[in-house]
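User: Show me a protein chain along with its predicted structure.
Assistant: Here is one chain, sequence first, then structure tokens.
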Amino acid sequence: MEVVNLFSINSSRAFNIIIRIVNGKREEPIENIPLEYLRLYQKCLQDDLNIRPDINEIYEILSKLKLQINNNNNEKLNQISYDKG
């Protein structure tokens, strides 16, 4: 996956990237991305503005994901401590 800074490239290349995005081209999801995050990302890229989530929905989903990740990490740390003990 190529990361591109549109401000540091020439205008014709930036235009080509914009055209690809407008035509529906998207990068491939990275490995091990949480499914809920992928769904949110895809929903945010919908052409129909009525389908896209508003900022409150985005915040709520990301907050829940953060909590899940923190809980999972704490469980892993507790398991490691228990295994050593």
